[in-house]
Write a structure and sequence with these properties.
Distance between the termini: 31 Å
Radius of gyration: 13 Å
Mean pLDDT: 93
Oligomer: single chain
Strand content: 25-35%
Number of strands: 9
Largest sheet: 6 strands, antiparallel
Strand order of the largest sheet: 1-2-3-9-8-5
Helix content: 10-25%
Amino acid sequence: MHFPDDRLYHADHLWAQKQDDGSWLIGITDYAQEQLGDITYVDLPAVGATFAQGDVAGVVESVKAAADVYMPVSGEVVEVNEALRDDPSLANSDPMNAGWFFKVKLSAPAELDALMDEAAYNAFAASA
C-alpha cells in the first residue's frame, strides 16, 4: 500500500487517502482508536457493496464500546483489509497505515470537498 501524506478527514473520526490507482483507503483516526480502547473485532463490508456518504459500512468493537463505521464518501468497496479480520488490534497499533479498513472507488468525488484537511481535523478533534 502507498500511504501519501494527503489525507482528508471526516467528522466521524475517519480518514480517506487517495491511492495511486485512483481509489481511496478509509480508516479510523488515531483519536477514534484512543476513544474506543482495545479493539477486539472489526466487521468489514463486502467487496462490491456500494454505500452512500453517511451509510454504515461496518462496525468496530472494543472492550469499551461498539461503534459504527460510516462511509465518509459514496462509493463501491473494491478491497477490504483482511489483516484486520485476523488481527483487529492493527486498528489500535497502526490506525493510519496498516490498520486501514477498506478501499473505495468513489461514485461522487465532489463529496471530498466536505472533508477536512489535517489541520482542520486536529482542531475539530481537540474540541471534541
